[in-house]
């Protein structure tokens, strides 16, 4: 017998007429989509612009100033803020790195074991901690595991991101998307009584299915589709193809460089050149080099292309060192003092949109940038004027103490494990107990998640896990402003009837599809929206439309809510739709198309698994 869910259904009320209010809200939404996709402004600034426009056009959009800024006091926004602080507290104890060390000892040199350990150690913790910090903390651990096992880091870093995404669907607090979806659903419940705010383990059974299916795919088919963009060679300079750009030259006695400091010399040369290292009889000198006076006979390691080097030799009185080839070992000859590392620039970094010159990078961090990796693209020329983008990876030469300072700077993610990490390991048991308390009290229904999360933050401050002066640095403020700025757009969609109109149009598919087919269609639409904007933006905009569609096709509104919630955290096809994908983009040396090649089959597989799981547990 064929069930009603598998038969096409008749749509509900007629499609609403298009009004001026709807047109204005649609125009604002489309403009926001274009700005998100083109990255005209940072996403959080775009969200604030949207909020201001909605307030200014309040008579048409129906958004009052109080409603416009309501996103800042929204329970989901505050909860996300608290969870970011809790995740930062765990990070400061080194608990995740402790797990990473156990992962490394288990994984050894076997690639399959390394992959399995990466999936487990990234996915399971992401169920109770925000998955973005989890990935940020595990990038250096996974890269180190890969290098020790002679495995390409590219084979492990996309799985690291994907595992954290599917792991984030295990509980309410695994990702900010879940918290936002819960808040929006609670607001929609005022009109649709069958809806309710999510509990801690509301959809854990479905999350387990998604996690198992996703990890099984990555261990089998996905493993074969992931390319080796970065070779497992030990010399990092070879990975960045730096040989043509690093050369040793000797300062002749009649050179214009003699008697000048490095800083004065570079300032007077109108060429794209940099002095990376200075070698003389008494030793090797690196950053800070600015005040070093150049002597005759000094050997300089310079970064320049062939034509620039030729002009430099002719005009400045320098000579090439015969049979010279600069290697990683030579450039970091005294590894107790200096080294080469990769720095990932996350979206929340203050360096985004700056240049190395405008940010005074060299002077601020006592570090020298040799190259920039942007996905699969390598930049080694005119870097001082190159605008830094989120997701860029910088190849940096610095002293050990500078690297350790960079490792604690939230503007960067150091892609190698620091030699002397400043972790509060003695606080690990207390931090874990606080997280368990936050989850346990919320799960038992004794307090809501907002209350337990804020109490957890207070507990971490009182126990010294997070110091008061570290509190504000623990928050990814771009995420908070993005959420707060877009929540009024979701309200405007409901209030003006725009959500009703879109829902009615999508509901026409029910004339040809069964309800479960409409549910699957909504999952696919949401993933496409997420690829263009972001996971938080898509869940805010799509949930009202999903619920309206469900009511028109006679479906279960809660089933449609879950489809949107899971789909918003399932952008596997691009590096820009989800934060964790962007974090591994540079360290893995990936091309934009790599995400589609590996992620598209996974996206399709999970769309079927998720929809069938929803139908099994909640009905459609």
Task: Outline the structure in words.
The protein is α+β, with helices and mostly antiparallel strands and about 625 residues long. It has a domain at about 245-325: Alpha-Beta Plaits. The chain has helices at about 20-40, 45-55, 60, 65-70, 75-95, 95-105, 110-125, 130-150, 155-165, 175-190, 205-220, 220-225, 235-240, 260-270, 305-315, 330, 360-365, 400-405, 430-445, 450-460, 475-495, 500-505, 515-530, 535-555, 555-570, 580-585, 590-615; strands at about 245-250, 275-280, 285, 300-305, 320, 340-345, 365-375, 375-380, 395-400, 415. The strands form two sheets. The protein has a five-stranded antiparallel sheet with strand order 3-2-4-1-5, with helices on one face. Strands 8-7-9-6-10 form a five-stranded antiparallel sheet. A hairpin with a 2-residue loop joins β7 and β8 (about 375-380). The longest helix has 26 residues, at about 590-615. The chain is elongated and about 90 Å long. The two termini are about 15 Å apart.
Secondary-structure map:
Blueprint: H1 20-38, H2 43-56, H3 58-61, H4 65-68, H5 75-93, H6 95-107, H7 111-123, H8 131-148, H9 154-167, H10 176-188, H11 204-219, H12 221-225, H13 236-239, E1 246-251, H14 262-268, E2 274-280, E3 283-285, E4 299-303, H15 306-316, E5 318-320, H16 328-331, E6 338-344, H17 361-365, E7 367-374, E8 377-379, E9 393-399, H18 400-407, E10 413-414, H19 428-443, H20 449-462, H21 477-495, H22 498-507, H23 515-532, H24 535-553, H25 557-568, H26 579-583, H27 592-617
Antiparallel strand pairs: 1-4, 1-5, 2-3, 2-4, 6-9, 6-10, 7-8, 7-9
Helix pairs in contact: 1-2, 2-21, 5-10, 5-19, 5-20, 5-21, 6-7, 6-8, 7-8, 7-9, 7-11, 8-9, 9-11, 10-24, 10-25, 11-27, 19-20, 21-24, 22-24, 23-24, 23-25, 23-27, 24-25, 25-27
């Amino acid at each position: 017998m064929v069930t009603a869910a598998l038969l096409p259904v008749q749509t509900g009320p007629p499609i609403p007429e298009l009004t001026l209010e709807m047109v204005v809200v649609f125009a604002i939404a489309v403009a926001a989509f274009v700005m998100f996709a083109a990255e005209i402004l940072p996403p959080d600034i775009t969200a604030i612009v949207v909020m201001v426009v909605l307030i200014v056009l309040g008579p048409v959009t129906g958004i009052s100033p109080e409603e416009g800024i309501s996103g800042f006091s929204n329970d989901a926004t505050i909860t996300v803020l608290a969870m970011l602080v809790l995740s930062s507290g765990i990070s400061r104890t080194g608990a995740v790195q402790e797990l990473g060390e156990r992962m490394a000892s288990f994984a050894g040199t076997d690639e399959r074991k390394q992959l399995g350990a990466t999936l487990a150690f990234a996915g399971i913790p992401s169920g109770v901690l925000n998955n973005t910090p989890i990935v940020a903390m595990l990038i250096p651990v996974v890269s180190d595991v890969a290098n020790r096992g002679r495995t390409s880091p590219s084979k492990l870093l996309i799985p690291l991101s994907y595992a954290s995404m599917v792991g984030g669907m295990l509980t309410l607090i695994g990702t900010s998307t879940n918290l936002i979806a819960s808040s929006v659903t609670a607001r929609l419940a005022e009109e649709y009584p069958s809806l309710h705010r999510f509990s801690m383990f509301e959809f854990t059974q479905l999350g387990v299915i998604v996690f198992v299916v996703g990890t099984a795919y990555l261990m089998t088919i996905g493993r074969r589709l992931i390319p080796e963009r970065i070779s497992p060679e030990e010399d990092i300079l070879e990975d960045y193809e730096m040989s043509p750009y690093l050369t040793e030259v000797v300062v002749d006695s009649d050179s214009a460089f003699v008697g000048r400091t490095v800083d004065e010399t570079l300032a007077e040369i109108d060429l794209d050149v940099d002095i990376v290292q200075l070698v003389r009889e008494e030793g090797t000198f690196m950053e800070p080099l600015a005040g070093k006076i150049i002597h005759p006979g000094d050997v300089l390691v310079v970064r320049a292309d062939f034509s620039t080097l030729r002009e430099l030799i002719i005009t400045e009185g320098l000579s090439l060192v015969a049979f010279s080839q600069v290697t990683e070992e030579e450039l970091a000859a005294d590894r107790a003092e200096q080294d080469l590392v990769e720095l990932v620039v996350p979206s929340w970094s203050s360096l985004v949109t700056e240049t190395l010159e405008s940010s005074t990078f060299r002077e601020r961090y006592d570090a020298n940038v040799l190259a920039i990796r942007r996905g699969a693209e390598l930049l080694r020329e005119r870097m001082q004027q190159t605008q830094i983008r989120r997701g860029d990876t910088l190849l940096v030469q610095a002293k050990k103490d500078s690297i350790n300072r960079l490792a604690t700077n939230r503007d960067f993610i150091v892609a190698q494990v620091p030699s002397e990490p400043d972790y509060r390991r003695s606080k690990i048991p207390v931090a874990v107990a606080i997280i368990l308390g936050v989850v346990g009290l919320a799960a038992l229904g004794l307090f809501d998640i907002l209350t337990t999360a804020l109490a957890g933050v207070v507990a971490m401050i009182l126990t010294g896990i997070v110091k008061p002066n570290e509190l504000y640095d623990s928050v990814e403020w771009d995420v908070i402003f993005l959420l707060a700025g877009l929540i009024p757009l979701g309200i405007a969609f409901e209030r003006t009837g725009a959500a009703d109109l879109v829902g009615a149009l999508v509901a026409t598919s029910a004339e040809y599809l069964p309800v479960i087919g409409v549910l699957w269609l909504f999952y696919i639409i949401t993933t496409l929206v997420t690829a263009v904007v972001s996971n938080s933006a898509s869940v805010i905009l799509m949930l009202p439309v999903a619920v309206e569609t469900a009511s028109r096709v006679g479906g279960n509104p809660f089933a449609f809510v879950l489809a949107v919630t899971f789909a918003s955290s399932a952008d596997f096809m691009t590096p820009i739709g989800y934060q964790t994908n962007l974090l591994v983009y540079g360290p893995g040396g990936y091309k934009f198309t790599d995400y589609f090649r590996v992620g598209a089959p996974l996206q399709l597989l999970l769309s079927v698994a998720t929809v069938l799981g929803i139908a099994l547990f909640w009905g459609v």
